[in-house]
């Protein structure tokens, strides 16, 4: 690496590591390791391993994770665009492995952008249960939402909130919480030299303050008997053992359990040997810290656990009664539920304007129940009804659940709409599409989360063919009707689920041998 390590950092590391320091320091002249994690929502890990265009080597602590060679360019393969894997630093795959997420759990990822660990949690949920994925910084939630949609996640809600407000809206609610905390990033110096430049001697103490606040919120949102994983990518004991020891002292209802991993993982420093430290000179990965905390079954003072928040609970929080960190509280700038910008069509400004106009009459940042607001989309057409009609002709099974309509835009949510009242919601669920002028226009995330056999009209492109890249670049394709896979009775004309080697990537619209490209501009292969 070119950047000079801060002398104060190296002095601290020498003190921390003693005679291991030389081996540690030597890693800075070595290349960082790269990896991908298979998105099992789309493909089993064994299948991807068999069809992978580049060599894969298993990562010992993550059954769906693989090291990739330096020469591999996984972001430049059609499989990436079909959401078959997520490019992730190998050590960063460890926290979710320790979270023990099971299908059906309610999981909260409090510091989630850009979504590496959220997409990993979603894969473990396997479409059952709930993922609430949050980040405080609005700009970062865009990448978060996009990655969740790329991976075809159906049961995620994306928020842009302070953890304190989430805890106030969802007291003692979640079975699993991940706090992948903002930190001084010392473990990433080799991979990201910006981290080196941003570091100063106050960094560890500054971040420890933030971590304390986030952990307090997590304590309130975790259900009795629930599990919390705390992770950082830094070495400083203040932000690691210090943050967790302080938390345990304040919260006797929590205990640390061993963070069991793989060969080469080291225990935390006293007083927290249950934690794990991942050192770059002992494993093939960057520096990480991991702690697993369990909340007593009967220890939550306030717990009337696991009921959905009553309607209005969030609104109370929005009016300023929420606990904890108030940064990011409603300030009138926040957007209500919006369709992904990249899913708004060119020339479809009316659609975007409609959504914004709809939000003006609402509490800032609120999500409104389908069809409940006066400023709701013009026209009496019921978006859910239009979707049902579209689905009857297009899909082999019609997804069901809580429909949330905002303006012309329809989502399927894993939560009842009132549960999100007052919370800045980036996505209230799976974006299905837009109901406009009596028609339903399917959204891109609807396509990415479908399996080929769930669409009555599909087309599979060979990942190695120039056609696959043409489609991903947004080009029109010539496709004779016999190439379309049609369910019994389906006509070739209409929306086609375009797949890469059988894995959904987006929509096309077929007519008379021409496949019009519906792959959104912001997602295209460049
Ligand atoms: C280590 S990164 C998260 C990486 C992410 N978990 C992943 O796997 O892709 C920490 C994140 O915390 C967010 N953040 C910072 N302060 C926060 C706070 N008070 N509450 C929630 N998120 C916060 C940052 O915007 C950043 O995206």
UniProtKB/TrEMBL annotation:
Keyword Translocase: no
GO molecular function: RNA binding; RNA methyltransferase activity
Active site: 233
Keyword Methyltransferase found: yes
Family: Belongs to the class I-like SAM-binding methyltransferase superfamily. RsmB/NOP family.
Organism: Paenibacillus spiritus
GO biological process annotation, one example: RNA methylation
Binding site for S-adenosyl-L-methionine: 111-117, 135, 180
Entry keywords, A to Z: Cytoplasm, Methyltransferase, RNA-binding, S-adenosyl-L-methionine, Transferase
Residue ranges occupied by any SAM-dependent MTase RsmB/NOP-type domain in the UniProt entry: 24-296
Basic and acidic residues composition bias: residue spans: 327-345
Database matches in SUPFAM superfamilies: S-adenosyl-L-methionine-dependent methyltransferases
Matches recorded under Pfam families: Methyltr_RsmB-F, Methyltr_RsmF_N, Methyltranf_PUA, RsmF_methylt_CI
Region of interest: Disordered: 322-373
Name the UniProt record assigns to this protein: rRNA cytosine-C5-methyltransferase
